[in-house]
Prior knowledge:
Mean pLDDT: 83
Number of helices: 17
Low-confidence stretches: 450-468, 475-479
Largest sheet: 4 strands, antiparallel
Strand content: 5-15%
Helix content: 40-55%
Protein name: T-complex protein 1 subunit gamma isoform X2
Distance between the termini: 8 Å
Number of strands: 18
Structural class: alpha/beta
Radius of gyration: 31 Å
Strand order of the largest sheet: 6-13-12-7
Organism: Nicotiana tabacum (Common tobacco)
Amino acid sequence: MLQSMIELSRTQDEEVGDGTTSVIVLAGEMLHVAEAFIDKKYHPTVICRAYGKALEDAIAVLDKIAMTIDVKDRATMLGLVKSCIGTKFTSQFGDLIADLAIDATTIVGVEVGQGLREVDIKKYIKVEKVPGGQLEDSTVLKGVMMNKDVVAPGKMRRKIVNPRIILLDSPLEYKKGENQTNAELLREEDWNVLLKMEEEYIENMCAQILKFKPDVVITEKGLSDLACHYLSKAGVSAIRRLRKTDNNRIAKACGAVIVNRPDELQESDVGTGAGLFEVKKIGDEFFTFIVDCKDPKACTVLLRGASKDLLNEVERNLQDAMSVARNIIKNPKLVPGGGATELTVSAMLKQKSSSIEGIEKWPYEAAAIAFEAIPRTLSQNCGVNVIRTMTALQGKHANGENAWIGIDGNTGEIADMKEQKIWDSYTVKAQAFKTAIEAACLLLRIDDIVSGIKKKQAPGASQGPSKPKVEGEDDADNDQLIPE
């Protein structure tokens, strides 16, 4: 049971990156109100059916009260992202994090056609945390940086303007045979011949690369001393043993294609989109920057700050902010925050419950009441008189009007969310409702949970496994659920 609940929160985080707590609260409340019906011998299927209807209607209400915004309008986007991370630690730094998040997500957003945009935060936005400096020094780089230095410092250039970049994922060193091969050499000269072959192999490989006049060669694998010699002689800076993910990001940023074998290189594989290749020393470490890219589809967010812990916290907040920005870019619709959405949904569902026929009416109404858990929790968190606040709010929302009245989380007062600029992303809310209600139905339907507590064993009854009992139609409805 607990496991399932924890999974919910994880799902929510994976999907939309926010609203993890709301999901748990909502699902818990849905199960809580279902308990009464289980006691009254309602069958779980009936309750689930009612919940399903309630979910459909709740999403319909969301559609009705959502307002569409313009993703290009920077001020609105800022306000939005800020309101979503307003409760977090970094809110004391003003717009800093929100700015970083919006910049980063706008860079990596790609049109997939049909007006859809895909924003892959995990793959194409790297957050590099470098202790030292001020938090205000954090920036979004128009390109990438990695914690690497060139292979031969001193011989290779550490700053190149408009570099031609070649990316490889093959080793630039002599390959040993797959299986253990023994070569017997009878004469000393043969040994030299063997060495010569190895050297020529590497020389050829380097020649194939140097044909394309690159300035920077980056490989995910090793790079032997000899190869390093050839490259540095040609004035090429090389970097080796780069992470695959970083390599993908560089490819996206400067428009290069990662090549598997040097002999398959083509002119089109060379990345020319970067404006500057530079190796800088920050603190004790060297970092390679490939920045000022023309049209980067990947970026690095460089975070600076006093300590590691601080940076970790800032990174978490930034992840949330980027999720928010991503959700809005993908689906630019907003709903009111501060519990206003849930209250509206609740009021509309209560109204609708009177028109529902038959036995499902009551669980449906209960689901409507369950939505009030969110504003109730909010008002508890503010430390105000919960009953008074809730009654006042219900009064305001009674006929489904005043959809934008909710609770101001800082003061606990009833306020207009539009004026306070307290928003939630439509995607997050819809996902939270779906996840919570579907999970509640799932748990209601699991028979094991039902039988977990159902029969307290009579004293003296045998502890052996009981025979499976076939359900007749008389007792199909008396499954009981444990209270959660």
